[in-house]
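Structure (tokenized):
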């Protein structure tokens, strides 16, 4: 098994090609990669490809919930939702995060949103709520105050912008009637505003995120 096979040098690929062309008896080579485009065509043309899709957020959430129940932990559904969303389709990453959350929690076996947010470096809910409210009310001075608090608390500003973007994206999905979309915070802040407002804010924040990353 060759993991991250795209990291091989040109010389290594040439040596591997000769082995693949005349493999030893009863030997199967498994080449694993996340960047197939970096593998020479001379190699890929001699391989059978299997594409593994990322697991859905819902499937990861259900698996985390099952583990929590079997291990007799206590976890808020919203905390599990955050973990499932942060795993980017990887069950291994989700379970690793759950294990860290259990170890990190100040209350043994109790996992809530704040524990997971601290582990992931997410802005605390009260600051995020205040910043989102400032954007919705177009209150520039309050928004500046919120980000000053975020900075003084030691949070990464880019992470805070991503959190806000994801919050408004969730509010848009919830307001548009998508089943299971949006947690308590999204539902609370979303009242009284049309979904289109959240979509516009999410798009603008995404542009700010990209500009900040490239600055």
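Design, position by position:
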């Amino acid at each position: 098994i060759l993991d991250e096979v795209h990291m091989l040098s040109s010389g290594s690929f040439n040596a591997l090609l000769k082995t693949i062309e005349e493999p030893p008896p009863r030997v199967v080579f498994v080449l694993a990669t996340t960047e197939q485009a970096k593998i020479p065509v001379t190699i890929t043309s001699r391989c059978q490809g299997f594409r593994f899709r990322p697991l859905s957020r819902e499937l990861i959430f259900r698996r985390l919930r099952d583990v929590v129940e079997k291990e007799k932990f206590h976890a808020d559904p919203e905390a599990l939702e955050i973990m499932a969303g942060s795993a980017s389709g990887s069950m291994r990453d989700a379970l690793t995060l759950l294990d860290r959350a259990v170890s990190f929690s100040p209350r043994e076996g109790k996992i809530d949103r704040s524990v997971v947010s601290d582990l992931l470096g997410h802005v605390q809910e009260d600051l995020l709520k205040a910043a989102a409210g400032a954007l919705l009310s177009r209150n520039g001075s309050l928004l500046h105050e919120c980000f000053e608090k975020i900075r003084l608390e030691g949070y990464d500003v880019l992470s805070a912008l991503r959190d806000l973007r994801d919050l408004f994206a969730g509010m848009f999905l919830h307001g548009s009637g998508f089943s299971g979309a949006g947690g308590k915070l999204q539902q609370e802040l979303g009242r009284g505003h049309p979904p289109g407002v959240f979509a516009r804010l999410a798009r603008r924040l995404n542009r700010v995120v990209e500009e900040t990353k490239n600055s």
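Reviewer-requested clarification: The first helix runs from residue 10 to 21. The chain has three domains: 5-44, 57-120, 125-214.
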